[in-house]
Amino acid sequence: MGLEDFKAMVHRCSRCSYCKWIPFAHVKSWRFAKGCPSIEYHSFQSYSASGRLCISLALLEERISCFDEGLPDIVFKCMLDGCCDVACKVCRYDLEPLEVMRNLRFRLIDNGCFPIQDIPLIDNLRKEDNMMMARKADRANWAAGLSLKDLTTEKADVVLHVGCRLSFDEELWRIPQTAVTLLLDAGVDVGILGRDENCCGGRLYDMGYRGEFLKYAENNIDAWRNAGATTVVTTCSDCYHAFKRLYPEELHAPMNVLHITEFLEQLIAKGKIAFKKSLPLKITYHDPCHLGRRGEPYIPWEGRQKKIRGQILVYEPRKPRNNGACGVYDAPRNVLRSIPGIQLFEMERNREFAWCCGAGAGVRERYPEFSFWTAGERIEEAYATGAEALVSACPHCERNFLDALDQRGDSLKVFDVLDLVREAR
Amino acid sequence: MPLEREVYKELESVVGPEHITEEPATLFSYAYQWMAELVPDVSGGGKFFDRPEAVLVPGGVEEVQAIVRLCNRYGLKFHVYSTGWGPWAAPPSGGQILLDLRRMNRILEIDEQNMFAVVEPYVVAAQLQAEAMKRGLNVHISGAGAGTSVLANACCFQGGGPDCIYFDSPQNSILSIEWVMPTGDILRTGSLGSGLGWFCAEGPGPSTQGIIRGALGGSGGWGVVTKIAIRLVHWPGPPVMPIEGTVPAYRTKLPADQFRATFPAFPSWQSFADAIYHIYDSEIGYIAHRQYVMWGDELQAAFLKIVSDPDRQLCDLEELLHMPEIQKLTDEMRRCFQLILVGMTPRDLEYQLKVLDRILEQTGGWNVALVNEPAMQQYVLLYMMRLCFKNLNFTATGGFIDTYNSVASPDIWASGEIEAGKKLLKKYAGRIADAGDQAMGPIAGQGGGGVTGWEDFLFYDPHDPDSVQAAIEVSDEGDRLKAQQGRPPGGMLLGLARTTHTEEKVRAQKLVHAREYQWQRKLKQIFDPNGIGSGNYLWAAEPSTNGEST
Ligand code: SF4
Ligand code: SF4
Fold first, then answer.
1. Cα(A394) to centroid of ligand 2, in Å?
2. Cβ-defined contact of A54 to B32 (cutoff 8 Å)
3. CB neighbours of A3 closer than 8 A, spacing ≥ 6?
């Protein structure tokens, strides 16, 4: 589908602004009622989902051009985190604001209208197959010393995909290392692609680089097939979203994909992971957007929109709604709750209407100031719960929180779910 | 026409470069509005009204004042909005700047003892309600719902809603006001004007509430109201509304011995009207509204089943409509409304329930059993208490307007106007949604009752030119039918969309016989001598003795 295909949808946006807030039912305070970081930071209407729908229409009607100065910033200063999409769909069954915004990005990138900050990033990606400005040769350094199957030459049931962030962010290497230990201890037949692991492409896709995404997706699928893997487990929420939703959507390649927290939840339930220590810690859990509301499984749909009773719009057959109802929210919470001593406090904005960490869709790379402000808002919300630590299940969120805390001179602890599992064993 | 560079620079020096823009994409985002397609003279049948020349996002009253003074100096018209929903939020014509008040978003005070809050323009009802509830208080929410500005609803637009029976109309709830007049002077009204705080609208300082609000509110064309104090009412529920359920079918579980959603239903319109009188007389009810009939009396039961169930979708509608139990429910609900009873104590609720039973007994009515199902009870309580699902107005087709409205004493329900509205909609069914009677409205338009009425909803598809045209035709025909009876036009929303986008002088001629707008002309001459308000403040040309007007 292209942007043109969304014209009817854009005509039907009611400009109600629900997309700027968390679902109104869930508003518990003045402070944490907002849902859209983009408009909160940039103020103008164009920096909201409905604003970007208007821009899409203005583009389609040739009232503005992709080449207008300032347009890329308006389009890309958005994490594509999808809180707007959830809030819109509380009432609307026929709108897909996130899809429209994604296609608006494709339109700009296809026309060569990208933020200048992308140039080194994309250059490096094309040479080194990663989003971290790092060397491909160093990709497997995190796994040095671990006795793991190399799936470029061996076969395994499970492929562990750790993603660009965890491959190159040394401070976070403990996360995939813990994952490996837990999986091996539980007797899972698991391996990695090591240096030949590629970027998942998910972030590229959200940044608007659909062509590049497809290249990586095809490579990854081939590599998994060659390794005989039936399941992909990932420690990264961005990768999870790419594999769970984008690969089947774009390449019709369904795989059994699990986030590490889902896998751990299963292992704990089967008694394959047990905790020996108590961790007396008050924590709050941050739902990564790509694991939560955007981590819903992809369900193929082919059909049409038709009208009944004259003008009432319905899909035939029933179309999956993707409104955040089926994201991964409980698995990480269940893992955390099973750790003795842990007290879990919810932030006001949680699950399908969680506030974004600020790192998504290239915002961290392109607009760091906005990215850290967004993270700072979440940190304030974490503090408001009385928690001593902010826990998440995505290295991108964790890195953004750590850097934002550093910038603030702040000392809130940040953990991955895996950190606490490791500590309590 | 772009602003003169000198003017732009001066405006920029007031708000800072990051809070002013002329970027075309952003300007178009302020021109897009619901209903634009229904005013083809301006929009060409598309979604855009005139775009502003620049948008400013001021951070406080001083900046607003400085901007308005500059506008006066340069003869530059300005338009202003808070949450900006509706055709009146777009600039009424070209050549204007737009002030987006979203940065003025604070709740400045909640005075628990005197039961009022002081807010800036971009505080939405959901926010203030959440904060008020923590203090055992609640706030009126306009019919447009939880996402709209408390201040704008009270001072700048009509602002009524389902809860007026207990909360009173918002205009009666305004206390002191801070207003940047169209001249750029600041007026602080009521007790605030004497430096005595926000608690009173009418002195000891000057009282200008009627002037500021006018007949319908200035809709962004009458200076800038920068702060108001608004009256709050009692909330006997928990400090935070507990929310359950899967998106989108959220629900709230409130204490059953103090909160009860009911659907009183009646065998005839006369008994419906009689029951309303009884409710006024007995002074029961926290919220009273004929809400779900907005989907049509033929569809409301099925729609309610869909939206309150996370697994259902609109494609289930036809199947539901064929189910015998839904057909029975549809019949039961045909003449019903939603009445939320809230007891300040359990005994209070018990009393109100007994009164309701008595009223139903006297009028031959019944409480539709559907609402007693726990999940439905919780869904309806949340819906009505927070008005957090109001964008459901657009769910069926993506567009709605009202067409054959009435406002009067309760007898109006039994006057035949409901059937007349339904007949009108049926005539166009197909080009608009075929839903039946869509007369949605408040059981009481003001505290304690006295006045009631409805908006006859109409669902059209904004993407379908024929459906758009049908909506226009229905609205025009409704207005003609009303005129034949010597009644005011029936379609408020399209009427306002057109009025606020008609050239000021042309409109003034059309309004020449409206007494309230004669008054407003005089006020305009005094308070906006340079004519820099955007044009949304309505005024009528002066009638002349020779039959012409000026
Ligand atoms: S995108 Fe959805 S929530 Fe946002 S203004 Fe449009 S209809 Fe409303
Ligand atoms: S994706 Fe996030 S940042 Fe972008 S418009 Fe939606 S809520 Fe705002």
1. 19
2. yes
3. A56, A59, A60, A100, A103, A104, A106, A107
Q: Do B23 and A45 touch (CB under 8 A)?
A: no
Distance (Å) from the alpha carbon of A253 to chain B's nearest alpha carbon:
26
Nearest Cα residue in chain B from A23 = B388
The H or E element that residue B367 is part of is: strand B366-367
The pTM (predicted TM-score) of the whole model is 0.97
Question: Under a CB-based contact definition with an 8 Å cutoff, are residues B39 and A62 in contact?
Answer: no
* Residue A272 half-sphere exposure toward CB, CA atoms < 13 A: 14
Question: How many angstroms does the Cα of residue A12 sit away from the middle of ligand 1?
Answer: 9
**CB hemisphere CA count around A25 (13 angstroms):** 30
Cis peptide before B58 (omega within 30 of 0): no
Tell me how crowded residue B529 is: count the other CB atoms within 10 A of its CB: 11
Please give the distance, rounded to the nearest whole angstrom, from the Cα atom of residue B118 to the centre of ligand 2: 30
Say how far residue A296 (Cα) sits from the centre of its chain: 11
How far is the centre of ligand 1, averaged over its atoms, from the C-alpha of A253 (Å)? 32
Q: Which two tokens stand for residue A197?
A: 């692991």
Candidates A24, A26, A108, A353: best to mutate against B (most CBs of B within 10 A) is A24
Give the CA count within 13 Å in the CB-facing half-sphere of A161: 32
CB B365 within 8 A of CB B273: no
Substitution site in A6, A12, A16 for ligand 1 pocket (most atoms within 8 Å of beta carbon): A16
Nearest-Cα distance to chain A for B189, in Å, is: 26
ipTM value? 0.96
Each residue's pLDDT expressed in tens, for chain B with a length of 550 residues: 789 999 999 999 999 999 999 999 999 999 999 999 999 999 999 999 999 999 999 999 999 999 999 999 999 999 999 999 999 999 999 999 999 999 999 999 999 999 999 999 999 999 999 999 999 999 999 999 999 999 999 999 888 999 999 999 988 899 999 999 999 999 999 889 889 999 988 776 666 888 998 888 889 999 999 999 999 999 999 999 999 999 999 999 999 999 999 999 999 999 999 999 999 999 999 999 999 999 999 999 999 999 999 999 999 999 999 999 999 999 999 999 999 999 999 999 999 999 999 999 999 999 999 999 999 999 999 999 999 999 999 999 999 999 999 999 999 999 999 999 999 999 999 999 999 999 999 999 999 999 999 999 999 999 999 999 999 999 999 999 999 998 888 888 999 999 999 999 999 998 998 888 999 999 999 999 999 999 999 999 998 766 554 4
**B-contacting residues in A 15-34 (Cβ below 8 Å):** 15-18, 21, 23-30, 33
**What would the two tokens of residue B299 be?**
């569809």
User: Considering the domain A275-292+327-425, what is its CATH architecture?
Assistant: 3-Layer(aba) Sandwich (3.40)
d(CA A17, CA A20): 5
Residue B416 burial by Cβ neighbours in a 10 Å radius (0-12, 13-18, 19+) = exposed
Residue B48: both structure tokens together: 């855009």
Gyration radius (Cα) of chain B, Å: 23
Q: Please tell me the distance from the alpha carbon of residue B288 to that of residue B547, in angstroms, as a whole number.
A: 46
Whether the CB of A302 is below 8 Å from some CB of chain B: the reply is: no
Residue carrying structure tokens 């207990």: B166
d(C-alpha B371, C-alpha B383), whole Å: 13
Query: What is the greatest pairwise CA distance in chain A?
Result: 67
Q: Under a CB-based contact definition with an 8 Å cutoff, are residues B307 and B249 in contact?
A: yes
Contact assignment for A310 to B432 by CB distance below 8 Å: yes
Fold for domain A118-269?
A: Rossmann fold (3.40.50)
- Phi then psi dihedrals of residue B325, to 5 deg: -70, -30
User: Left, alpha or beta for B86 (phi > 0: left; psi -120 to 50: alpha)?
Assistant: left
* A322 → chain B, closest CA residue: B247
Q: State the Cα–Cα distance between residues A374 and A357, nearest whole angstrom.
A: 6
